[in-house]
Amino acid sequence: xxxxMLISVVLVMASLCFGTTRRxxxxxxxxxxxxxxxxxxxxxxxxxxxxxxxxxxxxDGIKLVSESGATVxxxxxxGYVTINAATGCGTDSNSLIQGFKVTGGTGGMDKxxxxxxFWNSHMRVKNNIFTNNTxxxxxxxYLERSNAIIESCLIYNNAAMAKKGKDGEKxxxxxxxxVYSFASDSDYDPIIRGNTIITNSANGSGNMSNGGGGIxxxxxxxxxxxxxxxxxxxxxxxxxxxxxxxxxxxxxxxxNNTIKNNDKIGIEVKMMNASEITVNxxxxxxxxxxxxxxxxxxxxxxxxxxxxxxxASGPYHATLNPSxxxxxxxxxxxxxxxxxxxxxxxxxxxQAVETVxxxxxxxxxxxxxxxxxxxxxxxxxxxxxxxxxxxVFDITGREVRCIMNNSPKSAGxxxxxWDGKDRYGKQVSPGMYFYKVKxxxxxxxxxxxxxx
Length: 452
Description:
Number of domains: 2
Strand content: 35-45%
Radius of gyration: 23 Å
Low-confidence stretches: 1-17, 347-355
Shape: flat
């Protein structure tokens, strides 16, 4: 463990470029104090702990990095935006935010951005946790006119809430529970890559709400790739990825993602011009209405080829694939032009079907050893952040021990072990028990036998 921590610190230090390294709390009591003292190009290195403050970037080229990672280093905002950066602060990807749990944000002056808000700021955001933030738009992460890179983050349990007017009525927004990106007058291309985006919610109401429990992309471009977007919800619109545009032409690329079990719709596109949208090599399944829906006039065709729609027969389409049993495709418009090209959804041979058929981005072994005397464990290997819970029950269904409850785990390999003791630290009697491990939204229960 000490060796791992030493390697981690060395890697963090190696990632910090030239400039002064300012340490919190050994040199500065708060992150804000270090930020005030910093000059362009400095690094702020933060020790483990909870920092109850709202952090505003005030210089360019700053690297804000934790020593030991997001599970032990928390920035807990006191309302407003927990981390905020505007024009002139983080003008390129040399600026960095890495290794924090970001929570407690409630949005800026217009309730934009709960955990993180970038306005005309383009820095890199890596290996952070955004959770339990609220805002009107972009509860977890809010990007406006931004080419930011959001990668390898865990974004979960954030809620975009409909804003109320002066007389108390709900306004028709509340979009982007996990991530929200907006530009309107220019084309920006933020990169959202390698993130776990789960159990976020978009709670807007009315025809102007687009939803996007996981991600909302509004009048801008984006690259969305290699993400795990699962179990997000929306009161109106799509629980997965909501895309909205007007007469602009934007380039959007959605590739190599797992988009599964989101509320109602996996991907919904509302755009005048679809000619620059590609949706390729994704796993899109488990949605109650549509895997993909296009609900606007069209002047082009969305390239949605080579996706897995949940079944070898392909997606259901009333006229083009009525025998498909996978998630449905909806491209019925006032225009008679077909607007989604979803063929091929897979290649023809059964061997190739098995090759492209998706698997979870994590594996969970059975308990070993089993039977056991002193300890048994389950091995978790994951390519993404996961939320892990583990419990032990006796044969009557009574909970014997909570090993962990909703614990974030970054990508890697873990042994989740039980030492045969109950919640009070007392050794249990030999016999049969049930070991239940939940990873994200999937659980596995295994019989284990303890012997003398």
